Amino acid sequence: MSFITNVTGLAAVALAASLMPSAAVAHQEAGGRRVTVSLPAPGGPYAVGTFAVRLVDRTRPDPLVKSKPYRELMVSLWYPAKQPGQSLPVAPHMAPLAAADWDRHSAPPMGIAKGTVDWAATPTHARVGAPVDRRAGKLPVVLFGSGDGGPRTLGTALVQDLAARGYLVVTVDHTYEADQVEFPGGRLVRALPLPTKLTPPVIARLLARHSQARLADMRFVLDQITALGRGRGLGEKDTQLPAGLRGAPDLSRVGALGQSLGGSVAAQLVHDDRRVDAGVNLDGGYVGPVAKTGVAKPFLQLAAETHTRASEPSWKSFWEASTGWKRELRFKGAAHGSFTDLQALLPQIAVTSPKVPVADFVGTIDPGRSVSAQRAYLAAFFDLHLSKKHTRLFEAPDSRFPEVSLIP
Fold first, then answer.
1. Among positive and negative, which fits the CA dihedral 256, 261, 267, 271?
2. What is the pLDDT of residue 238?
3. Is the predicted pLDDT of residue 4 greater than 60, yes or no?
């Protein structure tokens, strides 16, 4: 099921969201040229580096295209980096072919006409291939998965903030499910076509199939990062890795993070893989066995305003079965897409495209406050459970984040 279908199915219509104060206001240049948008800068003490690589698992056929004898993925690594000056390029939010495909196929269902936004022009706050900042020490690892059909890029605002705080975050594209995946050499792979009739049983089967494929993908990626932590390379070719990356991952501290279906897979990974110590679900319903088994390790749920254990049976069963440290936070005014980069981007686009139904996707919560709160709680959770850094953030409401409620 496409990411946009997933978002719109859970979003509620509300008032237009306000502009994000920490991001540059969207502008449309004279002559009708396309709008450009920006992502909020990370708040951690380190600069950020990033590196994208193709990974190939030749031990299994592709689970979504059976005729393909191997599974290939694109992943990006985000990490604390030395300040490289201007010698290294700033990583784009989306690679050029992926950005063009997003413009043609993924943006229009959100009410954004083709050609309105220059998606390829959105910068991140990371330098490509920057050397690892050794002052950060060994890096705890977090695996990130987007919502069903969503590309790995849609978690960048949260991911690069974790990297700036000293984490190695690995974002994963799930080929043939993600709307578009750009591979090296100018090759674009689109998602498989959806069935004509998306009835509830059809959707359930799709999500189960995607969940199983993702789980195997994530475990394979973790295998590769484990090898990297032992000083080996990454990928099949002799890729030139950023300086200091070999040996940097600390595989004694591993977390899983995901939005929507990615959050469900994060929970299943926490349950199934002894290497994974803690997990976070960003507003996703649970799919598969973990909905009934829950987890015995630390787990955090972040919820949109209308997503509750009463309205979502899988949340109730997961919560009741989970026996480890657990917290649930509800964001007043947030919608399902609030836990993606759409939270930052759509309000900017609406400045020049006021018919874009912003609130349908990201609710009415102030975008800047939403992202700031998400970043604070994610960092506090992983700091607590991966690095044993004490925090009071989960003990009582925090006056800095009045939109966030701690749900008993």
1. negative
2. 61
3. no
DSSP three-state, residue 267: helix
| C-beta separation of 120 from 99 below 8 A | yes
**In total, how many domains does the chain have?**
1
Range of the domain at 316: 3-407
Query: Collapsing DSSP states into helix, strand and coil, what is residue 255?
Result: strand
373: domain CATH number is 3.40.50.1820
Can you give the pTM of this predicted structure? 0.92
What is the distance between the alpha carbons of residues 33 and 35, in angstroms, rounded to a whole number? 7
- Rounded Cα distance, 137 and 247, in Å: 10
Q: Which long-range contacts (CB under 8 A, 24 or more apart) does 393-402 make?
A: 394/327, 400/373, 400/376, 401/369, 401/372, 401/373, 401/376, 401/377
Query: Which residue intervals of 11-166 are DSSP H helices?
Result: 96-101, 156-164
Per-residue pLDDT of 123-182, as tens digits, reads 999 999 999 999 999 999 999 999 999 999 999 999 999 999 999 999 999 999 999 999
Can you give the C-alpha Rg of the chain in angstroms? 20
Q: Do strands 139-145 and 168-173 pair parallel, antiparallel, or not at all (unpaired)?
A: parallel
149 neighbors 214 (Cβ within 8 angstroms): no
The span from the CA of 228 to the CA of 368, in Å, is 35
Strands in 249-259's sheet, in edge-to-edge order, are 90-92, 123-128, 47-57, 71-81, 168-173, 139-145, 249-259, 278-282, 299-304, 326-331, 404-407
If one counts every other C-beta atom within 10 angstroms of the C-beta of residue 394, the result is 16
Cβ pair 402, 53 in contact under 8 A: no
Q: List the structure tokens of 340.
A: 């993606």
